[in-house]
């Protein structure tokens, strides 16, 4: 309950900038409720007058009835206008507040550490930003005014009934506590299924996103049947939880209606008796029955909206779970970058582990001079990628320090640290825009001349000019309208245009043909010239000329030196190199 209340308070923080429209919506709602509360009493006046005319043997007073009809039309018109304005004001509040929430979510995501996305499915994160925010938006749009209408309408109807006849009003008022008790019991049972429903929806989105991304691989290995089977399981969980949530929530409406019908019967019997006794006027009984409807109908409306509200409650918690995630730790010192960066990198007694119970890197010491090329080699899981993650401050070291030109990176702003690096990863990433904009991503204010110059340096200019629309050709959303090798060349051009002081290359030549491998290698050599470079090497034949080769195994540097020195040692590197050389020869 505390979490739900907290989530509502946090939602109000997004509503408060638009409180003028918010309270205008509430004000117009109150006017509509008052007008709606007056209607039954005014509607009963003609009935009472006709009954009196008949009883006294008089002709029907059509003049009086005509005046009442005009009043009813005016009240009805005013009610319609007030209801429309209330909905219009509320729509404005909801749309703007949800826009602000999505903007805050976007900012939050950009402040989250890489570790968050290592632990959570992209599809689930996407579901929280889209489906869950939509669920909150729909609930506010559909439910907020309706709930205010219902609560104030019930209060108005009860006051009117008490003014007409207290005993009859007491019969009707039994509906309210019974309905509340029924609703509370059902909500307590069904709420956990609504939470499971939203979680299952996140799992489904994650599954679909992952499988669409790897659709070609699924087709290649004939995993269609297995994927369909897995989808049925995930989809079945969503259907099962959705059914339980909707079925349990759906019990409220018939149970609440049952109490309302009981009240109708009680009012009809007791009211008829009071008319016979002369205690109650016929028009007042007519009005009273309408007031019973004004109590039971909002109670039913609230129960109908309960599933929307519960779904939104679960969605709100999921949205604010992202907002509550710990962000990248800000630096206490935030030392600015020197005017001139040389590119010297030092690892001093660095220790790091993803899991405190499983140490990975311990007491690592490396010294890299400006302009040197450092190759990092070793078997899978040796810690090569972890080393790069620490350099980029995607993760912070547990102990020790990484220094650039003598400055501890933990004392620098993360953006400043990352601005020193250019990266060419094995998994090339392009986004849905023109080729020139994909290159310009490395330097957003780059001129067209700089874009072309970077493309020439990366050996990709000729390829671009052979494509339809040249530099203006659009890369599609999947990035599969260019080859893998061409993607790599474009990402190299992106790194060139950013003019980094330190370069990180996750060698990407292992999955391309020999001609493209040569082009990529030449491009990489040009980019690396005069820069401190870290190369994660998969093909050892490509790093023979590296100034320093670090051989890693289980998070430790077990050997280091240049190619000739390491071969002469006849250690781990020599065995690794010879085994790979034999495989290539075969």
From TrEMBL:
Keyword Transport tagged: yes
Domain ABC transporter: 345-579
Residue ranges of every copy of the ABC transmembrane type-1 domain listed in the record: 25-311
GO cellular component: plasma membrane
A Pfam family: ABC_membrane
Bilayer-crossing regions: 20-42, 62-89, 144-162, 168-187, 245-267
The protein's name in its UniProt record: ABC transporter
Origin species: Vagococcus carniphilus
